[in-house]
Amino acid sequence: HPSQGVSLGDTVTLRCHLPRLAAWVWLYHDGGKTHNKYKDKELDAVEFSFMTTSWKHAGTYRCQYHLSDPLGTSEKSDPVELVLTDARYPPPSVSFSFEGHVMTTINISIHVRRGSNVTICCWNWDYGSAFLLHKGGHSAPVQRQDPSGGGMATFTLFGVTPADTGTYSCSYRPWGYPFVSSSLGDSVTLEVTSPPTHPGANGESRGSLVVAVAGGCATALAFILILIIFFLLAARRGRIQRTTSPGEPLKSSKANELQVPPADNEGLTYTELQAVTPSFCRPGPSAVPQPPVIYAQLGFGEPH
Q: Long-range contacts: 52-57, Cβ < 8 Å, 24+?
């Protein structure tokens, strides 16, 4: 496919392949007969060569053969485009963008993650009409654009994979000359890399989630228990304060009073003493019950 790599002045050979029959072979250029040759039945192809190509040779070519016995004419072959590169047209400029980065550096190698979108812009505001994107190793362009205003085209590779790895460049067709091409512009080498995968990553994530949920439940349960204990202690403290309110008179127990026989009270004086119980703790600010009253017998007269 001579769409690229044929320059003005090069020698070009077009080959028509036919069945092994004796026939006349015609070569059509842009719809009109230009050349014909006779082919023997031992041959399976006929060649047409242009020793020095010029602009008049650029265009579309087809083959057809004619039989005399039996009489008949074949259908025309599929078309082949002969595009001539004219170095008098300057190559297009190129920019390269991916993942938010825009690069105008030329003839470089770029590493791009798998699944990224890559955009290649080509422009020539003076002559550019149709733009073509070329990939190394492919004889035909991989993409073509005919912008309405001309001058610039944008090629996007969506969700690149390792199959998109390669060297890319652009060319353009000048206004009014669809079979004349500029030289290839600066190239960029794209290398698509796949991120490393961890087989246990999903399992580890699920395990971490379970641990996190269990830890959260344990924390919530401990907080609820603390609240219950706090309210129980507060309720108990309230009951104690209601039972021993300050200023409330304490009733003495009759069982703790000392009963003195009436017959023995002559010449005796009685006084009230308080029994103090030894304590090793400093009494708190809250009121404590009064100790029981003890009556002791004191004698001031002569001994009986």
A: 52/9, 52/10, 52/11, 53/6, 53/7, 53/8, 53/9, 53/10, 53/11, 53/12, 53/82, 53/84, 54/8, 54/9, 55/8, 55/84, 55/86, 55/177, 55/180, 57/12, 57/82, 57/84
Helices and strands (H and E) in the chain: how many? 1, 20
Longest dimension (CA), the chain: 180
CB-CB contact of 139 with 113 (8 Å): no
Measured between alpha carbons, how far is 3 from 201 in angstroms, rounded to an integer? 49
Mean pLDDT of the chain: 75
Q: Can you tell me the distance from the alpha carbon of 48 to that of 16, in angstroms, rounded to the nearest whole number?
A: 8
Residue-wise pLDDT for 101-124, tens only, equals 777 656 778 888 899 999 999 999
Yes or no: say if 131 and 149 are a contact pair by the CB < 8 Å rule. no
pLDDT digits over 198-229, tens only?
Answer: 554 454 445 454 445 556 567 767 777 787 88
Q: Do 180 and 55 form a contact (C-beta atoms < 8 A)?
A: yes
Q: Which letter does DSSP use for residue 147 in this model? A: -
Cα separation, 30 vs 149, whole angstroms: 27
Question: Distances in Å between the alpha carbon of 53 and those of 4, 60, 69, 101?
Answer: 14, 14, 36, 43
Residue whose pair of structure tokens reads 């993942």 in the numeric block: 99
Mean of pLDDT values over 70-83 = 89
Nearest residue to 185 via CA among 87, 53, 84, 55: 87
Query: Shortest CA distance to 124 belongs to which of 149, 92, 147?
Result: 92
Judge whether 3 and 81 are in contact, CB under 8 Å: yes
Tokens standing for residue 303: 């001994």
pLDDT in tens, 10-20: 999 999 988 87
